[in-house]
Amino acid sequence: MTMWEFIDLNLMEFHACFKRKAAFRWFIVVVVSLMIRNDHLGVTSIIRTLGINPNLYECLLHFFYANSWMLESIQHKWFSIVMKSGLVYRVNGKPLLIVDGVKQSKEARKMPCVKKLVQESENSGKPQYIHGHMFCGIGVLLYSWGKFFCTLLSLRIHDGNETVGKWVGDKLSKEPHVVRAMIESAEIASNTEPIILAADRYYLSASALKKLFELAKQYGKPLVTLVTKAKKNMTAYENPVSRTGKKGRPAKKGKKVKVQSLFSTARELFVETEVEIYGKRVKVEYFVKDLLWGEKIYCELRIVLVKYENIESILVTTDLTMSAEAVIEIYALRFKIESSFREFKQVVKGFCYRFWTAAMPRLKRYVKNDEMRQTLENVTDARAQAAIVKTLKAIEGFVMFSVIGFGLLQIGALLHHREINGSPFRWLRTQRNNVPSEATTADFLRKTIFNGFHFSADLGIARFIQASQAPLVDNHNDNVA
Question: 132: closest CA among 374, 477, 365, 381?
Answer without folding.
Answer: 365
